[in-house]
């Protein structure tokens, strides 16, 4: 070991003093994380403390009231949210997954129209949600004549999150190694058999995670629904897809706009309910991902 | 000459009496405008092991993937010339590639079991091909033929990915056998395996050659010498326009390729002077 025997090497191996830049960079990274974390904790503790007096069964057993905050509840908004989000999923998941399968497994990427479609899906994911509200109002509510109903809201929110579902599903499909497709095709399986029996089952965890996150976004949306009749004062649960409705984000917005303090407490309590529904959906996504995660 | 064992006992029949499974005539393969392999002529004998050897990028895998039309999956890939399977044009208009792949199985370089149970891996092929009959028997028979049954019979419901690399590759062979093909193509089946697993696969190939026609692409010359009846030596050559093409240099009985090659390039390759 000629190198180690020379005295110079000892100098080379010694520390060059405190790496200030290393520390600085590390601190900067941690600080960025802390900013996000502090705001999240502040938000959560604020709404929780504020809404605590009204976090009881009145919230989901009673209907909204503009006269008395003590007897007002959010039942119609909670059921409305559940109706809208279920129908959104029913509409957007099959459509989005099917579109992803086409783009990932069938589309010839050398064709210009497939590249145009791909590019536009990326762009669609970035369009402000209020624009989708206008689209829903013009085409779904008026032209198709579906009016201000649960189905109009679901179709509009479905369109809004469709690009997210497509992008997430494509990534999940792409994560399935090509060797699995080759192995299946080499056994005389058709392309559809290969997709339905090998590729799709293997990509379910990724698709499910992405889909639930997309629906989580839809559940918190208020802007497009402002244009689609959700602002009306609703004291009944939806009884079908053509019923009038309201949803939690809109109900929260309504209560916060009231002047009386009691309604602000109610709004905070409703925010907690909305957050709980969101966290439940995200937990399901994480559980699905861990449960069915595949390693190749 | 390197010290290699050349498969001896049963001398192959003459090339005329081969009863060829595949007859390849003037085959070229294009990827778009690029001619990857040019002018290949060879015969694949019935129930023989044919080895394709040569340096990287000489087109041997490309040719192998024509035999079960796996090249169809690569956009822009197209063959010219003819490949006949028992006298029928493999690329004829009426030929269904799905049907081709059912009869001509394939084992890949990296073991690629499906992320399912051992049982489901074997049962998948017969199922998609609509095979009737007792699936348990089909699975046992295939695993037995692939010399894997004794090792896995107690854990058929276990995930196939829990097996060792060598076991996974034999599972892939069993999976191919389960659809009762006539030919098994193997694309460097041992290159990801250790020597002991390699020996097991080689023994298995010898065994399978009684019932199946096997075509194997290998980087390992000793492997070709040990297992095959006939050997095709490919190389890559630059033409007058400066473009590289894969070419078939020599196709003969394995014993002759390794002891008395007729082409200087073959001799240089097998003695280790290039490649």
Automatic annotation (TrEMBL), chain A:
UniProt keyword annotation of Membrane present: yes
Mode of membrane association: Multi-pass membrane protein
Name of one Pfam family that matches: BPD_transp_1
Alphabetical keyword list: Cell membrane, Membrane, Transmembrane, Transmembrane helix, Transport
InterPro entries: MetI-like (IPR000515), MetI-like_sf (IPR035906), Phosphate_PstA (IPR005672)
Ranges that cross the membrane: 28-49, 82-103, 124-141, 147-168, 240-257, 263-288
Residue span, ABC transmembrane type-1 domain: 78-284
Alphabetical list of PROSITE patterns matching this protein: ABC_TM1 (PS50928)
Superkingdom: Bacteria
Subcellular localization(s) per the UniProt record: Cell membrane
Biological role stated in the UniProt entry: Part of the binding-protein-dependent transport system for phosphate; probably responsible for the translocation of the substrate across the membrane.
Stored PANTHER family: PHOSPHATE TRANSPORT SYSTEM PERMEASE PROTEIN PSTA, PHOSPHATE TRANSPORT SYSTEM PERMEASE PROTEIN PSTA-RELATED
Similarity annotation: Belongs to the binding-protein-dependent transport system permease family. CysTW subfamily.
Protein name: Phosphate transport system permease protein PstA
Organismal lineage: Bacteria, Bacillati, Actinomycetota, Actinomycetes, Streptosporangiales
